[in-house]
Amino acid sequence: MASWIGEREIEDLAIGAAILGSGGGGDPYLGKLMAQKAIKKYGKVKLLSPHELPDDALIIPSGMMGAPSVGVEKVPVGNEVYMSFKGLEEYLGKKAYAIMPLESGGMNSTIPFAVAAQAAIPIVDADGMGRAFPEIQMITFHVYGLKGSPMVMHSFQGDYCLIKTTDNYRLERISRAVAVQMGGDAYVAAYSMTGKDVKEMAVPNTISFGIRLGQAVSEALERKENPLDALINVTGQSSYGRAIVLFKGKIIDVEKQIGSGFIRGHVSVEGFEEYKGKLLNVYFQNENKIAIVDGQVVASVPDLITLLEKETANPITTEALKYGYRIVALGIPTPELMRTEEALKVWGPRCFGYDINYVPLEELHREYYLRHMF
Amino acid sequence: MSGIAVRQKAETAFDLSGICKKEVIIEIMNEMKFEYKFIQDFVDAFTAVIGLNMIVCKNDKILAASGNLRPAVGQTILNRDILWQSMQSGLNIIVRNPGKDRPCWNCEKNDSCKYFGEIVVPVKWGNNSLGALGLVAWDQRQKDYLFENETQFLSLVAKLAKLFVLIVMEKIYHKRHITLKTQLDGVIGLISEGLLIFDQVGRISYSTHAAQKILESTKEELESTSLEKLFPGINVNDILYRDSINLDQYLARMENSLVLVNSTPLISEENDPIGGIVSLVPVKKNHKSKQKYEQVRRSSFDSIKGVSNAIMEVKKKARQVAKSDSTVLIRGESGTGKELFAKAIHNESPRVWGPFITVNCAAIPDQLLESELFGYEEGAFTGAKKGGKIGKFELAHGGTLFLDEIGDMPLSLQSKLLRVLQDKYIERVGGSEPIFIDVRLIAATHKDIEEMVQQKMFREDLFYRINVIPLYIPPLRERLEDLYLLLEYFMKKHTIIQRKKAKRFSSNAINALFKWSWPGNVREVENTIEYIVNFEESDIVELESLPDSIRFFSMDGRYHQGLPEEFVCTSNINYGQKHESPEERNKKILIALLKEYGTSTEAKRKIAEILGVSLATLYRYIKKIKQQGHLIN
Predict the structure, then answer these.
(1) Any CB–CB contact under 8 A between A225 and chain B?
(2) How far apart are CA B310 and CA B482, in angstroms?
(3) Can the peptide bond before residue B564 be classed as cis, meaning omega within 30 degrees of 0?
């Protein structure tokens, strides 16, 4: 059941990861290059489904934290995540059975492949959110009781830091400060866990889904078919659930504020085609969080809200939003693991300052989903 | 040569038979009289620039003339005039010394001619002269100029003749085009379907009023866009270079707009596609089509869940065979989705708009199956309905007949089915008239049909007749990578329907679910999840929340060897209570299986198969459990 991931799959994953990033997670380009280079040098990486892990296996999630845009300007040496991973292994005094991404949006989907190739270990087809979130405690591992520390951080200059905290909120504050001092971004290994924990807490099959998303889009474009249809069909064959078109229109206004390491703001979209005469507002904090059409909430976090270029289905990150883009706003339901009561206490709309209750996409668009479920 | 009339044979360039048909030229000549102003303007402009006088005549009338010749417009040509002679002979005539040259001898104005020189070229269609063009020098300077450039002027005049004709021809065709378009608009306006005409790159060049109404767009909006922009997902090349676009596929892409789209290419005389026509039918007005749309969307290959290589291969193969009319035999265990595949094949086949009729051969008593399939005539047997009854074959006419569990069909009926498949005719029970049927057959079975053939329980000839395209749907245990997807899908489905809260699985539950052999396949997964959603109250699904059969049992790849004789569970998973003896646990497993599968002989055979023991051993254990006081019927 395990499959082998080569350079071609990483190419597809980069596209899929950008879609799952919901506007955040950064440009996967850098992570893609790092993973492809490592795979070329060390060989393909084995992808394991969570149920294939022994219960007592040590799994170390790894990735990047901080501002992804910094990484693009201040290109990493390439072994930072590997060093963090190895550092945590050394501290724990045990060899890891496999690595796992922390999140499956943007560059953090692909970076762990570089480590897996170099360390010659498998990668787990799962992650801690099935999308991208901005803070270290916004992860299923935290929600279901796992401690993020000990955490190892590495900078591109070679600085090394081990953090042990009493809780995951303190871990976020301290590690964020360290990341700023490391130059705006840092490469980390945290939330070490067992195979048993992965089965209970991780969102399964997110990497293989990202690959299939990317494959569907690029194959549709090659065949000159509509990539949006291909994308929606693939989501229907995943543990997320079928995506829904929330809106089509042209961006007429973008308001962005950058501060405290986050990018906040909203984008206004004037509808066309069947949405003519309507207005969409998407509010974002690194990732798109709430979508409102004419005062009516049509999707909210933790469901995925992705803005795509209409013709190419190319995802647009919040940093890249600008006037004139003709977009399709897509809603993708989040996996069930992300919707439990405990989970919504950590990333429900109120956690981001929006005074609304979370209503799942399937409930907001009940008729559409009932039609597609039967 | 001076002083002698030079006659040259007209060049072919002056002959209009190479340009247009005779009836067209007649029309042109008639039209000329309406276009004389345009010709006169041209002749005037020519004289102003070149300095030579020009005269144009049609038959015996002077149509246009410039300079000193202008007063002659509208007059009849004098008999034996040079223009007249040129038309009569069909030859170019050059007069260098007017009044003296031979052509002038018979001219009525021979004595009073004021010309200094003349070149006349006839305009012909085949051997018939239609008119003539002349260039006239009115003084010595013009004469010198004319004859110094004689060859060039001859050629120019010929080309002008051709130009006049072409311009008039264009005007005629334009008028015809406008008339035709008005007539077509009138005809198309009567059609309720919306029509769009597009060119070879998909640009829409024409839209009917009905199309504008259906798409809620203006004529300008539609005719400034392309087909691909209007209908995302449509591929113009698919229409141009293949058959007409597959209707159901397109509907699936239309999502909520509910417009049936059909199209056909327009092929040029050179056999090149030059564009196409799209017809649009608003489905909202057609209840039957709307229902069909829903059926098609719900039973497509996309609705069959699974992304493993095993299932993707079957879907790919099934999609390929869907396009043909060949008989398909679907093999697969219970719950693998044989009927879903059959419906998806029907919905992607050209028979999509025909009926899809299902007959479960195992669910209908043998004696009734024949009349169910073929129908009966009034009075065919005791209890037969008045007026008779139409059979499933007839109902499926023009569509697909799905014979589920064909392995359960009685032998007597098998031979009749074979004959129907070969002859394409049926006879109702008690009837004598053969009825033609056009039906595609899809059959399915979970039985080892080859083994049945060996044991003479299934006709060999029928087997080969239906096994044209075999499709094997893998059991879930052979594609366990799809299990997460199925668990999540059914969890979402049932929490949405019942408006329950999301749940997650404990690692023990996950381990057990992945070690279970899923003999009931996808159907069993759905039932399991429905059970959990109904009965599990906490957010986390623990091992204890799973159905007994899964909880106590491990597939573990070796599960057949795991339980014989003393049912020793070899799994490394700690099922149930730790203090339980293996015998106690095995008893629970057996009871759970009996609860799940029932206590019929068939069920017991299945349980024995799952446990890897003989039927006799199983009976021995059941007897032992009964003796211990457990109630098993």
Answers:
(1) yes
(2) 10
(3) no
Which stretches does DSSP call E strand in B410-505? 425-426, 435-436, 440-445, 469-472, 504-505
The number of C-alpha atoms within 13 Å of A144 and in the hemisphere containing its C-beta is: 26
Has domain B475-546 been given CATH number 1.10.8.60?
A: yes
Report how far residue A294's alpha carbon sits from residue A270's, in angstroms, rounded to the nearest whole number: 10
pLDDT number for residue A60: 97
Tokens 């005094």 belong to residue: A93
- Which of B298, B302, B496 shows the shortest C-beta gap to A362? B496
Note whether A219 contacts B: Cβ–Cβ < 8 A.
no
Q: Sort out which chain A residues have CB atoms less than 8 A from B484's CB and list them.
A: 49-51, 204-205, 239
Q: DSSP alpha helices (H): ranges in B129-206?
A: 140-148, 150-189
**CA-based nearest residue to B461, from B473, B453, B469:** B453
Residues in chain B within 8 Å Cβ distance of A241: 488-489, 492
Average pLDDT over residues B616-623: 81
Q: Tell me the chain B residues in contact with residue A337 when contact means C-beta distances shorter than 8 Å.
A: 502, 504
- Could you report the per-residue pLDDT of B276-331, keeping only the tens digit for each? 888 887 654 444 555 566 666 667 888 899 999 999 999 999 999 998 889 999 99
- What pLDDT, on a 0 to 100 scale, did the predictor assign at position B7? 46
Residue B128 reports pLDDT greater than 80: no
Instruction: State pLDDT tens for residues B578-609.
Output: 344 556 656 777 777 787 778 888 888 877 77
* Contact residues, B window 214-243, toward A, CB-based 8 Å cutoff: 232-233, 235, 237
Chain B contact for A167 (CB, 8 A cutoff): no
3-state secondary structure of B145: helix
Inter-chain contact A51–B294, Cβ cutoff 8 Å? no
pLDDT tens profile B495-541: 887 788 888 899 989 989 998 889 889 999 999 998 888 888 888 89
Sheet holding B273-282, edge to edge: B204-207, B194-199, B273-282, B259-267
- How large is the average pLDDT for residues B38-55? 87
Nearest C-alpha of chain A: how many angstroms from B441? 25
Residue A150 pLDDT exceeds 70: yes
Q: What is the CATH number of domain B191-295?
A: 3.30.450.20
Predicted confidence at residue A202, as pLDDT, reads: 96
Q: Which residue on chain A is closest to B501 by alpha carbon?
A: A340
Q: How confident is the model at residue B20 (pLDDT cuts 50, 70, 90)?
A: low
Q: Is A342 on the interface with B (CB under 8 A)?
A: yes
**Percentage above 70 pLDDT, chain A:** 98
Where do the structural domains in chain B lie, given as residue ranges?
A: 6-172, 191-295, 299-471, 475-546, 551-633
Length reported for chain B: 633
Architecture of domain B299-471: 3-Layer(aba) Sandwich (3.40)
**Nearest Cβ partner of B504 from A241, A337, A370?**
A337
Q: Which residues of A touch B507 (CB under 8 A)?
A: 55, 195-197, 199-200
Say which CATH class B6-172 falls into.
alpha beta
**pLDDT score recorded for residue B238:** 73
Alpha-carbon distance A155 to nearest alpha carbon in chain B (angstroms):
35
CB contact under 8 A, B307 and A337: no
Q: Note the ipTM here.
A: 0.88
> Which domains, ranges and CATH numbers included, belong to chain A?
3-206 (3.40.1610.10), 235-373 (2.40.390.10)
Task: Note whether B197 and B275 are within 8 A (CB).
Answer: yes
B142 to A352, B63, B96, B117, B233: CA distances (angstroms): 95, 23, 12, 8, 70
Q: Hey, is the C-beta of B572 within 8 angstroms of any chain A C-beta?
A: no
Cα three-residue angle B111-B112-B113, rounded to 5 degrees:
100
* A137–chain B nearest CA distance, Å: 19
Q: Do A340 and B504 touch (CB under 8 A)?
A: yes
